[in-house]
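Late entry, evening session. Most of the bench is empty. Finally got around to the prediction I had been postponing all week. Sequence below, unchanged from the version circulated by S.P.
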Amino acid sequence: MLPEALNLTQLALDISNKQKVYPLVRAETLNTFGEIYLKQKKPKDALNPFEEALTLSNNARITSSKLRSLRGIGTTYLELGQKQDALTYLRQAQEIYKNAGIDSPDSRKVMTDQEYAEFMSYLFERYVRPRLPRVRRHLDHHMKDNVHYHLGQAERSARILRFIESDCDDDGDIYGTFKVERG
């Protein structure tokens, strides 16, 4: 799919080179090139099209394309591990959004893995754990042995999940935790 998109984008760029087109069309085509390269995990190839699109956008004063270029360059630098350069371009884009009174797509709050783990722990401690004794007492006289067994299983499962979440850095650790090693 991406190679076909790359071919079509190249065709659009070739046409824009032969014809006199609006700078917006050429800048957006170059931005598309950069985004395709990023999706292909080729950040070094993505940088030039984004920079060329930014130059065109600045010269023609096209804000929408400029924003797309700035975000693309910032994302590319992040992929290349150059965080300071990434922040420079992403902050420029954020400032333009701010001055226009528009929320930046990058400004949406997303939980980190650590925040998510803390949130899930909070939910468990706040809402589940306090109710376990009450449920146990309520059902105790009806199905004493059965209830204790299933609640014990649930508590053990919760401990295992907490262990996996806190002690396993990646998927390989999780599988290694439960795999019997034979030598």
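Two things to note before I forget:
The domain at 2-107 is CATH 1.25.40.10 (Serine Threonine Protein Phosphatase 5, Tetratricopeptide repeat).
The chain has a mean pLDDT of 77.
Will write this up properly tomorrow.
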